[in-house]
């Protein structure tokens, strides 16, 4: 029997709050462990390629399960889905905090990821169902606290804990929050989302896992160098599997991920802009620590603290931006925000060996201010255009594309940085060799390496600037959505979807 749901008269704020807690600690764990990887590598005596699986494995499970979240959200109640996800996350966290071997720690991280993968799509879906369009901006602004602030706080919190406590504390401090969220959800969580007795297409799940998992893994290891055949192989397998999977979805009556939603123009435009931004913006989370630690010699703790004011700015601005979105729509906010982001990203492409730490903190905070005005308004406006029956597919598609394109953008920009660093290093070395009377000393080699790496970082930030300009151009074509598309019958959706009346100027 199919359950139905409607927008409640009064949003269930207490229920949404506990979903926020669960999603926050789940997303926080994506970046929480990065700073601790060297410490863990030393304790368990494993190689860098092995310890990276603590991050790569987490990301892969997310890439595999997030596309399937559309099926899960439609098939199961949000109550049972959240309880299951939070249980898995809690079990994984407890196991990680007491793991005696590296192998058990990797398994624990994957169990964590299995729980966290569905958190963001589920929370977004509940938010869309709970609030009418005219109030969604404010609501989704608070959602931005989870999506943006949690990953940004991870390195700072991790750096402090690793410097002062055992790395297992990273998991121990999360356990009380996850247990509270789980216990509360068991006794108080109710269902808001509609369910349908749809069947799971196993072949689509397999193709989706190979497709998104292959792309994520391939581009993540390609960031370390394109000479690795495994990078090419997994990217090719992922791309081919993804194409077959997409073609199959168009032939299924109940696709696990509905690609027809891209026929809604503002949703398609919002996802295109988000893809461009993800490729350019999240790569800064990699480039800045490289500059701060490897080139300037600051500690991991200082690198994390550099980003903390920016995270706080985004946290403060997210609800404010949501309210402004409800009042003025997405386009003007995005234009102002992207303009600020372009200018600050360009300044980051002009880094040198003398810029003060405080100047970098301010520049990153201003950049974060610009970013806070872009992501949530654009994403919310696009989702607003979809009929309610497409909410699970819209949220799953949004989160999947964020994961995949973020990995691709980071890999491409880091590859460009490495290539430029190598060529510039060779050039500088030959110049030093020609001018040094007593040959190139070790001190000169170290200086050449840092200058070459700086040149590579600046190039990557400059490319990011150009890419963000493209996002700004696309933003001028955005129109405000004031009412969602009608939930048309499945047999007529292909013919009527292009006549969608929801897009208004």
UniProtKB/TrEMBL annotation:
Q: Does the keyword Repeat apply?
A: no
Q: What is its main location?
A: membrane
Q: Where in the cell is it found?
A: Cell membrane
Q: Which UniProt keywords apply?
A: Cell membrane, Membrane, Transmembrane, Transmembrane helix, Transport
Q: How does it sit in the membrane?
A: Multi-pass membrane protein
Q: Give a GO cellular-component term.
A: plasma membrane
Which InterPro entries would you find in this protein's record? EmrB-like, MFS, MFS_dom, MFS_trans_sf
Q: What SUPFAM superfamilies does its record include?
A: MFS general substrate transporter
> What's the domain of life for this entry?
Bacteria
Q: Which residues form the Major facilitator superfamily (MFS) profile domain?
A: 15-483
- Cite a single Pfam family from the UniProt record: MFS_1
Mind telling me which residue stretches traverse the membrane in this protein? 12-33, 53-73, 80-98, 104-128, 140-161, 167-187, 199-223, 229-247, 268-291, 303-320, 332-349, 355-379, 459-478
> Which GO-annotated molecular functions does the record name?
transmembrane transporter activity
Q: Which family does it belong to?
A: Belongs to the major facilitator superfamily. EmrB family.
Descriptive protein name: Drug resistance transporter, EmrB/QacA subfamily
What organism does the UniProt record list as the source? Answer: Ornithinibacillus halophilus
């Amino acid at each position: 029997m199919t359950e139905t749901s409607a927008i409640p008269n009064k949003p269930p704020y207490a229920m949404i709050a506990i979903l926020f807690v669960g999603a926050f600690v789940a997303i926080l764990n994506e970046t929480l462990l990065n700073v601790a990887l060297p410490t863990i590598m030393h304790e368990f005596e494993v190689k860098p390629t092995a310890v990276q699986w603590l991050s790569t494995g987490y990301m892969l499970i997310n890439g595999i399960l997030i596309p399937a979240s559309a099926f899960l959200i439609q098939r199961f109640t949000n109550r049972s889905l959240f309880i299951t996800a939070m249980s898995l996350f809690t079990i994984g966290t407890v196991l990680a905090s007491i793991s005696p071997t590296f192998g058990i720690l990797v398994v624990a991280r994957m169990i964590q990821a299995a729980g966290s993968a569905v958190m963001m799509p589920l929370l977004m879906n509940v938010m869309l169902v709970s609030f009418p369009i005219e109030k969604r901006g404010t609501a989704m602004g608070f959602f931005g606290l989870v999506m943006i602030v949690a990953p940004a706080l991870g390195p700072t919190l991790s750096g402090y804990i690793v410097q002062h406590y055992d790395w297992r504390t990273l998991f121990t401090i999360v356990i009380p929050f996850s247990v509270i969220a789980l216990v509360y959800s068991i006794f108080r969580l109710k269902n808001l989302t509609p369910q349908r007795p749809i069947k799971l297409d196993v072949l689509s799940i397999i193709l989706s896992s190979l497709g998104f998992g292959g792309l994520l893994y391939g581009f993540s290891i390609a960031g370390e160098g394109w000479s690795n055949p495994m990078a090419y192989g997994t990217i090719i397998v992922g791309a081919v599997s993804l194409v077959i999977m997409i073609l199959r979805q168009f032939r299924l009556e109940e696709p696990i991920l509905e690609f027809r939603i891209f026929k809604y123009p503002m949703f398609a435009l919002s996802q295109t802009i988000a893809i461009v931004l993800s490729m350019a913006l999240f790569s800064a989370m990699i480039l800045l620590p490289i500059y701060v630690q490897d080139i300037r010699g600051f500690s991991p703790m200082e690198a994390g603290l550099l980003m903390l004011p920016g995270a706080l700015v985004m946290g403060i601005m997210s609800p404010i931006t949501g309210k402004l979105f409800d009042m003025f729509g997405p386009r003007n906010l995005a234009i102002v925000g992207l303009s600020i982001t372009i200018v600050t990203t360009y300044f980051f492409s002009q880094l040198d060996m003398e810029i003060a730490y405080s100047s970098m903190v301010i520049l990153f905070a201003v950049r974060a201010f610009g970013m806070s005005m872009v992501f949530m308004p654009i994403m919310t406006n696009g989702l607003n255009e979809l009929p309610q029956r497409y909410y699970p597919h819209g949220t799953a598609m949004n989160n999947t594309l964020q994961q995949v394109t973020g990995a691709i953008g980071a890999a491409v920009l880091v590859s460009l940085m490495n290539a430029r660093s190598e060529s510039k290093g060779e050039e500088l070395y030959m110049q030093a060799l020609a001018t040094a009377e007593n040959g190139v000393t070790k001190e000169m080699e170290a200086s050449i390496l840092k200058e070459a790496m700086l040149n590579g970082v600046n190039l990557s930030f400059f490319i990011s600037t150009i890419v963000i300009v493209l996002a700004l151009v696309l933003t001028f074509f955005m129109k405000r959505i004031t009412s969602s598309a009608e939930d048309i019958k499945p047999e007529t959706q292909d013919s009527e979807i292009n006549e969608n009346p929801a897009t208004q100027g």
